[in-house]
Design a protein that fits this description.
Blueprint lengths: L6 H4 L26 H12 L1 E8 L2 E9 L5 E4 L21 E3 L3 E6 L4 H6 L10 E6 L4 E7 L2 H24 L1 H16 L7 E2 H8 L8 H14 L25 E2 L1 H12 L2 H10 L8 H11 L8 H16 L12 H11 L3 H5 L5 H8 L28 E2 L16 H9 L4 E7 L6 E2 L2 E2 L2 E2 L4 E2 H11 L8 E8 L2 H15 L25 E5 L14 H15 L3 H19 L5 H4 L5 E3 L5 H7 L4 E6 H10 L1 H10 L2 E4 L13 H5 L6 E2 L8
Parallel strand pairs: 10-21, 11-16, 16-17, 17-18, 18-19, 19-20
Antiparallel strand pairs: 1-2, 1-7, 2-3, 3-4, 5-6, 6-7, 8-9, 11-12, 12-15, 13-14
């Protein structure tokens, strides 16, 4: 749709015929990304596309035709037509959609390097030179693929890696083009009958994805104004030549094509307050010069001149930071003309406007979303607190049953779940480790009942080694529930020592040490939390009866079993396991446990007498809540010396979280659970 646009919309609305900021082709980036003969051949192949087997489960190995669009922004494939008419209007681009943004590809792994391949092909994997894996989105879901030949696999890997770099360049040069590629996927997903248009009601529904509430009347008004600008007359909905236009009979029969959809989304996403502020300083030019921008900062942002609300807030934040940390620099607020020119270069995305050193309204929006306009000190984005106190004096982001994708009873176990929470900043992840056919495995089980799918302990430790310190340099705790034999424990120790190397904390503390090391002292270290062989006797295998009963009730309901009979058989089986495991704790594995030695909690008096600062206890949420209410002072004193971990009730089979605040108030350090459904998507 052609439209009359001003300089401020040039950088904001992409897709109009007069738009100078068009999506960049692959040829425009040859200077930054040299095209070798191998890359050219690979690109030609993926543009045409080819068949790949999409591996999902033992019973779902589907052959699909995959290809990459000409702009190198979208990976497309032909989905199943079996349930075509029953699909939802839209889904996320990193799930089972037929279009995937290249920018959503986080990693490209060569070979069958994922938990899906391991579970689908137990014992014997497909040929390594045919397999590759795409990790997608912030939750690191995988797309597991098998090519028809090694040559075709090479084409896919070379081309996708090239396009991934291409999109990163394009994001820096023209993020609007990549954003519009995402909008195209959303539009196509909602266009169920594939006629190239959406009703206004469908558009309003799509806006809810972006937390934008729009009335139908306002949306229709925007569409009409856009059509008036292009001299298009409304016609009947039945007119096949102009079926995307507004019906003159019913205001509800309003349809828009993709270009009009872009105009609508741009209009809905505008912040009118920012536009109004922009207009105060543009002198009716529809853009800001460096002098205009400097004038804006002088009147609204800087410490000199009138004391604005923003300046007051920034000063208050600076004062708070100074109290917490004396070695900080003052906030830079007195911007110069050179600073304003730098802001224009960084935030104006339209090359034409940037070349003229002027800032459009889109660039002004971008500037408002940057740290320059943040009332919070930049120092608050870094760790400015004193990190030299004992580890027990800090709250620690933790995760319960990290490997589980959704619910606790029938869910899949995924290595990628660990990657996701580690990238989000989690500092304590959990592993339930059992003996496998050949080596230790991780899955959720109660008294020998297998409730989820299985993944290899080795694969999880590899992921931990790669991502442990991506989000934070401070220590990571691996909370291990050990269900392995002595041989399995020794294998676990060998895997951790071999994979983690010097990152693994194995050096025992000096005998003169009377408190836990600080996060500063433990930087870059991975700590194992588990039961350790005591000096005089082995530790007991304790049962949290309340937690076990809740889990068994959920399992019995899910599998239509008698809960009492299930409980009797399970406890008898568990007792046999305990008898077999007595005095069977591996010294090699025990030597890997230094400061997070798990110990049973009986009372605060008992813990004060028998436990050292190196030991820690785990509490169910119900027990922790009762202790917080009845003995808060003792709980606080207990937590000053050693760590406490709070795990959710066994009745939370849907993996929901508990309220951690009462536990935080008594100093429980590991009392917040990372849940995948609440992480950013």
């Amino acid at each position: 749709m052609a439209s009359s646009v001003t300089p401020e919309t040039d950088g904001l609305i992409s897709g109009s015929d007069d738009q100078p900021c068009q999506a960049m082709s692959i040829n425009s980036l040859e200077a930054q990304l040299p095209l070798t003969a191998e890359v050219i051949k690979a690109i030609d192949f993926v543009h045409t596309g080819g068949l790949l087997i999409k591996v999902r489960s033992r019973f779902s190995k589907n052959s699909r035709h995959y290809s990459v669009d000409e702009a190198g922004l979208i990976l497309k494939y032909d989905g199943s037509r079996k349930f075509k008419h029953f699909r939802k209007c839209f889904r996320r681009p990193t799930g089972d959609d037929n279009e995937i943004l290249i920018s959503d590809i986080q990693d490209i792994l060569e070979g069958p390097d994922s938990s899906t391949f391991g579970s689908v092909y137990p014992g014997k994997l497909p040929r390594e030179d045919l397999c590759f894996v795409l990790r997608l989105g912030e939750d690191y879901k995988t797309l597991d693929l098998v090519a028809r030949s090694p040559e075709e696999r090479t084409f896919w890997i070379v081309a996708l890696k090239y396009y991934k770099d291409h999109v990163q360049k394009q994001l820096a040069l023209n993020p609007i083009a990549v954003q519009n590629a995402y909008f195209k996927i959303i539009f196509n997903g909602a266009d169920v009958n594939k006629d190239g248009r959406l009703s206004i009601q469908e558009v309003i529904k799509l806006m809810s994805m972006f937390n934008i509430s729009v009335t139908e009347r306002y949306a229709i008004q925007i569409v009409e104004e856009a059509k008036i600008k292009t001299n298009i007359k409304p016609v009947e909905d039945g007119d096949s030549d102009n079926r995307h236009l507004i019906s003159s009979k019913s205001k509800r029969n309003v349809f828009v094509n993709f270009q009009e959809f872009l105009t609508l989304t741009t209009e809905f996403m505008k912040c009118k307050h920012i536009v109004a502020l922009f207009k105060q300083y543009d002198h009716n030019k529809d853009y800001l010069t460096p002098d205009d921008l400097l004038n804006f900062f002088k009147e609204n942002h800087q410490s000199k001149g009138p004391e604005t609300v923003m300046a007051k807030l920034r000063h208050q934040v600076q004062a708070a930071v100074n109290k917490l940390h004396s070695n900080v620099e003052d906030i830079q607020e007195n911007y110069t003309l050179a600073d304003c020119e730098t802001f224009i270069k960084e935030h104006e995305k339209c090359p034409e406007l940037k070349g003229k050193m002027i800032l459009g309204v889109a660039g002004f929006h971008s500037l408002f979303n940057s740290s320059v306009m943040n009332i919070k000190s930049d120092l608050c984005d870094k760790v400015y607190q004193d990190m030299t106190h004992p580890l027990s004096h800090y709250y620690i982001d933790s995760s319960h049953n990290t490997y589980i994708e959704t619910n606790q009873l029938t869910s899949s176990s995924r290595v990628e779940s660990y990657i996701c929470v580690l990238r989000a900043g989690c500092r304590c992840v959990e592993m339930d480790v059992w003996d496998g056919d050949e080596e230790p495995e991780i899955y959720h089980g109660i008294f020998g009942l297998t409730m989820t799918s299985k993944i290899l302990f080795r694969d999880v430790i590899k992921a931990v080694d790669e991502f442990a310190f991506t989000a934070s340099e401070y220590p990571l705790i691996l909370s291990i529930e050990n269900h392995c034999s002595v041989e399995g424990q020794k294998m676990m120790a060998d895997i951790m020592k071999e994979t983690l190397g010097s990152k693994l904390l194995t050096q025992q503390l000096a005998k003169t040490c009377t408190q836990l090391p600080s996060p500063e002292e433990l930087k870059g270290k991975i700590i194992i939390k588990c039961k350790k062989i005591a000096d005089s006797s082995v530790l007991n295998f304790d049962i949290d009866e309340e937690y076990i009963n809740e889990q068994l009730n959920g399992y019995a309901q899910t599998h239509n079993m008698d809960v009492e009979e299930l409980r009797r058989n399970a406890i008898e089986s568990y007792r046999r396991q305990v008898d077999e495991k007595k005095n069977e704790l591996s010294v090699d594995f025990s030597d890997c446990i230094v400061i997070c030695q798990t110990a049973s909690f009986k009372s605060f008096t008992d813990s004060a007498k028998k436990h050292t600062f190196k030991q820690m206890s785990s509490f169910s949420e119900n027990m922790a809540r009762k202790l917080s209410e009845k003995e808060p002072a003792k709980f606080i004193k207990h937590n000053l010396r050693q760590l406490s971990r709070i795990y959710p009730s066994g009745s939370r089979t849907d993996s929901s979280n508990y309220n951690p605040v009462p536990m935080w108030l008594t100093g429980c350090q590991l009392g917040k659970e990372f849940l995948l459904e609440y992480l950013p998507k």
